[in-house]
């Protein structure tokens, strides 16, 4: 809840901690108290607060040029596109700013591809999406959300989307017809609580998309860029989508940078004037994005997320039956379902905050952990010690 009399719109209910500075996996509040950040801005701060290489890239570019718009070229954008495309094993990059814009852009590209390449009847394109999805907050995106708090009172809604149960290839196939241009999915659903689909789901989606000539669009805005112990969550099951939607960590926690990444036969459908953004692809964003890509190209963040993820998984699994009903872990990303007998996930987060650890609840009973990949192993262990203590003390009657 926003403070009484606040000038801030009331669309968030933050934990009552007022951060003044950050370094690595740690933040410090206005009174000098230190907290471990186990959310990392929903994966936008994958490389930690104030990462020296990223800050240096930003500072150097701040002194050169920050914005020229796409009316002119800038010397950072072509290299950024080439380097990001290479990281993703694709040919082309469409740069935008926020994640929601990448999703919107992917939808527009898929529709244009459907009409111009696949030959779908004009204005009839459909896109199949999954229950429990989170793709952002624009009016078109909330049109295909099934979360009432994201959607209610924001209609009328954009048509052209079909929602099928996440994890069911049969339901997906049944929803595909001659109007279908794309399947849009999170390979692991983040906001829904780190929901991992059955092992054979994404490979089946890939096969169905090939058979029916439909684009597979993977929203890797939260799951991508190192978080799961691989560059992309799709890598964990050996699947390559037609389009990656990237955001969050692509901006290194410094500036909003997002992108649609794909091959020329799909992204190449866009013509000058059909899509754009004043800030998309600006030199500051591109310079920071290049530094992020350089880091990921070494494979080190992915490796670290994999190694520390094993620690996270072992420690969290040991809590099942002790205040926790279930855990889902991929790399340094975990959904922890809190036993209602212990309290709500929000209450657990508040108690952890009091002990110097920041995490975020989602959907009532789930606590999400997404620490910066640079977190020290000892700090990670400490955070889980705190969770364990909170769960066991909370279990006692007040
Ligand atoms: C955060 C997120 C988005 C939206 O990104 P914004 O930058 O907040 O617009 C889209 N998809 C997924 C999977 C996300 O986690």
Plain-language structure description:
The protein is an alpha/beta fold. It has 2 domains: 52-297, 3-Layer(aba) Sandwich (Aspartate Aminotransferase, domain 2), CATH 3.40.640; 300-395, Aspartate Aminotransferase, domain 1 (Alpha-Beta Complex). It is built from 13 helices and 15 strands. It has helices at residues 40-43, 52-62, 77-88, 99-118, 139-143, 148-151, 169-175, 201-211, 264-267, 283-297, 300-317, 345-354, 377-394; strands at residues 19-23, 26-29, 34-37, 92-96, 126-130, 161-164, 180-185, 215-219, 243-246, 258-262, 324-330, 333-338, 357-358, 360-362, 366-369. The strands form 3 sheets. A 7-stranded mixed beta sheet has the order 4-10-9-8-7-5-6, sandwiched between helices. It has a 4-stranded mixed beta sheet with strand order 1-2-3-13. Helix 8 links the parallel strand 7 and strand 8 (215-219). Helix 2 packs antiparallel against helix 10 (283-297), helix 3 runs parallel beside helix 10 (283-297) and helix 11 runs parallel beside helix 13. The protein binds pyridoxal-5'-phosphate (PLP). Pyridoxal-5'-phosphate binds at residues 42, 98-100, 103, 134-136, 186, 190, 219, 221-222, 247-248.
Q: Keywords for this structure?
A:
single chain, 398 residues, alpha/beta, Aspartate Aminotransferase, domain 2, Aspartate Aminotransferase, domain 1, 2 domains, 7-stranded mixed β-sheet, 4-stranded mixed β-sheet, 15 strands, globular, binds pyridoxal-5'-phosphate
């Amino acid at each position: 809840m926003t403070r009484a009399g606040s000038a801030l719109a009331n669309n968030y209910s933050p934990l009552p901690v007022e951060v003044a500075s950050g370094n690595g996996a740690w933040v410090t509040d206005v009174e000098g108290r230190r907290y471990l950040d186990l959310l990392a801005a929903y994966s936008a701060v994958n490389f930690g607060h104030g990462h020296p290489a990223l800050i240096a890239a930003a500072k150097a570019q701040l002194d050169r040029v920050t914005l020229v718009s796409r009316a002119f070229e800038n010397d950072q954008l072509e290299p950024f596109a080439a380097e990001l495309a290479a990281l993703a094993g694709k040919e082309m990059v469409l740069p935008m700013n926020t994640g929601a814009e990448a999703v919107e852009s992917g939808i527009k590209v898929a529709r244009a591809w459907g009409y111009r390449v696949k030959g779908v009847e004009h204005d009839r394109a459909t896109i199949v999406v999954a229950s429990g999805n989170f793709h952002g907050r624009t009016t078109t995106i909330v049109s295909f959300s099934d979360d009432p708090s994201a959607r209610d009172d924001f209609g009328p809604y954009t048509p052209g989307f079909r929602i099928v149960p996440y994890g069911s290839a049969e339901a997906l196939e049944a929803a595909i017809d001659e109007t279908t241009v794309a399947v849009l999915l999170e390979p692991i659903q983040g906001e829904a609580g780190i929901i991992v689909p059955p092992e054979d789901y994404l490979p089946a989606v890939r096969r169905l998309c090939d058979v029916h000539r439909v684009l597979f669009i993977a929203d890797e805005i939260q799951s991508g860029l190192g978080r799961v112990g691989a560059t992309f969550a799709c890598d964990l099951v050996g699947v390559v989508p037609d389009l990656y939607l990237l955001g969050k960590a692509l901006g290194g926690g410094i500036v909003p940078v997002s992108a649609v990444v794909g091959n020329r036969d799909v992204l190449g459908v866009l013509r000058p004037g059909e899509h754009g953004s004043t800030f998309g692809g600006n030199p500051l964003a591109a310079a920071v994005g290049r530094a992020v890509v350089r880091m990921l190209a070494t494979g080190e963040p992915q490796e670290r997320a994999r190694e520390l993820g094993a620690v996270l998984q072992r420690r969290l699994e040991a809590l099942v039956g002790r205040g926790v009903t279930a855990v889902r872990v991929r790399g340094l990303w975990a959904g922890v379902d809190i036993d209602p007998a212990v309290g709500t996930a929000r209450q657990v987060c508040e108690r952890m905050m009091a002990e110097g650890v920041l995490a975020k609840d989602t959907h009532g009973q789930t606590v999400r952990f997404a620490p910066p990949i640079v977190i020290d192993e000892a700090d990670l262990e400490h955070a889980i010690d705190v969770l364990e203590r909170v769960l066991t003390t909370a279990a006692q009657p007040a």
